[in-house]
Amino acid sequence: MTTSSKPDIHLGAFPLDVGHHIAAWRHPDVPADGGSSLDFYRRLAQTAERGKLDMIFFGDQMAAQYPDDETVGRTSRVTRLEPTALLSALAAATTRLGLVGTVSTSYFEPFHVARKFATLDRLSEGRSGWNVVTSFNDREAQNFNQGEVRTHAERYERAHEFVDVVQALWDSWEDDAFLRDKASGLFFDPAKLHVLDHRGKYFSARGPLNIPRSPQGQPVIVQAGSSEDGRGFAAERAEVVFTAQPSLAAARGFYADVKARAERAGRDPGHVKIMPGAMTFIGASEAEAREKYEQLQSLIDPEVGWIVLRRHLGIDVSGLDPDAPFPDLPLTPDFPSRQKLLIEMALSEKLTVRQFYERVVGARGHLLAIGTAAQVADQFEAWVDGGGADGFNLMLPWLPAALDDVVDLLVPELRRRGRFRHEYQGSTLRSHLGLPVPSNRHVQSSAQPVAQA
Amino acid sequence: MTTSSKPDIHLGAFPLDVGHHIAAWRHPDVPADGGSSLDFYRRLAQTAERGKLDMIFFGDQMAAQYPDDETVGRTSRVTRLEPTALLSALAAATTRLGLVGTVSTSYFEPFHVARKFATLDRLSEGRSGWNVVTSFNDREAQNFNQGEVRTHAERYERAHEFVDVVQALWDSWEDDAFLRDKASGLFFDPAKLHVLDHRGKYFSARGPLNIPRSPQGQPVIVQAGSSEDGRGFAAERAEVVFTAQPSLAAARGFYADVKARAERAGRDPGHVKIMPGAMTFIGASEAEAREKYEQLQSLIDPEVGWIVLRRHLGIDVSGLDPDAPFPDLPLTPDFPSRQKLLIEMALSEKLTVRQFYERVVGARGHLLAIGTAAQVADQFEAWVDGGGADGFNLMLPWLPAALDDVVDLLVPELRRRGRFRHEYQGSTLRSHLGLPVPSNRHVQSSAQPVAQA
């Protein structure tokens, strides 16, 4: 098999504040106030576009997250710009990069969300993607007139109806509905305007949406849940799946499961791109890469570290002997999928409490790739060729340097191996990802060409 | 009195789709598909900034507006990009221009709106303004799980509480709350973080908002209601008031009333800027200006014209003799304020039905200024010096040409008269408008300096 027959690896840049590493803001090269600055994010987006990455992705949290304890004041994660507004600004600062953001189905109406992403999709001429999440955070609920969150099953049932309505609204206008015939005075063809008139269990929305479809037809649907409900949702609806997989073995199981579910749901599994999170530390030598990692690890405030661990794990292990093996906790079926994943990682890799702490507080149970560009490329190729991933969502540990390293070191290495684009082939996010342009549901069509616009 | 002692006239650019004139899209120079294109709006914003205008303003409608009758398909007003997303994109394309958008209090939660405008205010470094509206359109209600709109009084009561919560959320963080002290590891001072914990009649929101205040402290509050409730709301809360005033006499009454109400509410009336809408047709000669007006008027599809008139007036006058005087309709107290204004204009100016039709379908009852730059400047000066306005919200009839005329013809004329800035003095919208930076409510301070940042 020649390298050219292997698929390109998809890469997304996933900035979080000034870096995914909890101590990023304390790094001497990091502008600690970057998290609320357009200039900071514009530089990131333009760097990602210079590297021809598929997309930039922003998560969301609709509440300030600060622990109610002795560590209050010691985290930079308390502020977060609204992601669709930020992505709209970046639409004006880039021309090819995909623009993906999280919006929760829990505290909006579908018409709002359909409109947000349709607007972003028009502003960017077909580069938007929506990361569909359901909210399970009490602090968020308390900001929206609701004392407590809904049950897991109800949240997903609501999310399915929500996405149905959003996608239907996106098809309100056929692509050739707008005639704009100055001579006759006919602006649109009424036969190509479709009123939805949805009345469901959770939502009513008449429609039509007041925004035309974009060159990519509809924004890309992204999803990140790894629970049973989450995998079902991904298989039926997602076009990109973000996931936390600490090892190739775990990733391979997840990949096979979601692709098989998609096939059973009647979909082409090639149209569900699986992109595990990866935190990369790339250096000219392995030693340099490790030094970059150790520098950030040394900046973790231990009090903050234990709090972060408790939050991710759901239990407090700070009292245990740091050098003892991680305890064999009983994994009851109602354990949240993410916590289960972390504990399984600790047990299967036989980590001590301290090693577990360092792994989770640093990379939060995602793939942690430390090494030269060649070593990281080896690891990425092993995951993609080993059936664990279609690409990676890069959880850049400190910014802007970690993204510069990806673009200046890793991308050229992947290109040398024939595994990454030299130029964008099209101008839409669907084109970058090799996803089909969905035909409008109101139009009879058998052809679903892969996007090349 | 020297001209230099007279105040500068404030000017905002108010694009609507490809122009405020109903026939704008049929004009040969207008790109009929501009209404959903970032390039089109970017050019407008950059032109407004080149002219040093105070702001660009986008209204909103959360439903596609197309008449359910024989004229369906004959209007370009069916699509509208979500204004805060559009303004966020324009924040990245400009550096000084104020960015104002409409968001309704009717179908959002306050936390959403606080966050949207705080994000825009950070992205633009202090240039955002929120035009607060309450929705009264059935088509909008039907897109949001609600069959019918609330009563007028309830909408305003809800709006007051809504704005209270939004403004309180905007003060969640004191300006010096963020220490970002890399050495000590303290990112913020917990004593300068304020949790709102609002539980009111319509809303509950715990807070804090997860976005810091901007250089202008808080986004500017804009408002446009002219009813009794609307004027009360404006006097108590608005910093900019948009209004439709067809004549200086009418404008003078409105201006005096709102300023007096503001004073009675304990506010400095100078901190409420009143900006009537003005539709301008500017030419090198008066004949050329009139020709521009007549060209657009001639493009009105008569069927569309009568429908528009019926919608603005609430009654159908299409069966009347076009050359007869406009009928003396009984103005009952429950007549909506905007319709009352139009009918009063018809009677006081003794318009025929045809003249009324042409005025309303063209400029919708706003000031219609047709002439050379000197003539339009005369009219603007007469309104400002005559106590009718602090400036104008320019309802540009066809785009981009009508904005080019403002910037290339009217602005230089106003500058020659010492009535318009040559350069921006500051970088925030508050600075352009001469509005004070509100101190954070949690900080003891007597000083309220006018923004100069």
UniProtKB/TrEMBL annotation, chains A, B:
Annotated InterPro entries: Diverse_substr_monoxygenases (IPR051260), Luciferase-like_dom (IPR011251), Luciferase-like_sf (IPR036661), NTA_MOA (IPR016215)
A Pfam family of this chain: Bac_luciferase
Family statement drawn from the similarity comment of this UniProt entry: Belongs to the NtaA/SnaA/DszA monooxygenase family.
Region of interest (Disordered), ranges: 431-453
UniProt entry keywords in alphabetical sequence: Flavoprotein, FMN, Monooxygenase, Oxidoreductase
Residues that coordinate or bind FMN: 60, 102, 152, 156, 226-227
Start-end of Polar residues biased regions: 441-453
MF terms in GO: monooxygenase activity; oxidoreductase activity, acting on paired donors, with incorporation or reduction of molecular oxygen
PANTHER family: ALKANESULFONATE MONOOXYGENASE-RELATED, C2H2 FINGER DOMAIN TRANSCRIPTION FACTOR (EUROFUNG)-RELATED
Name of protein: LLM class flavin-dependent oxidoreductase
Domain annotation Luciferase-like: ranges: 26-388
Secretion signal span: none
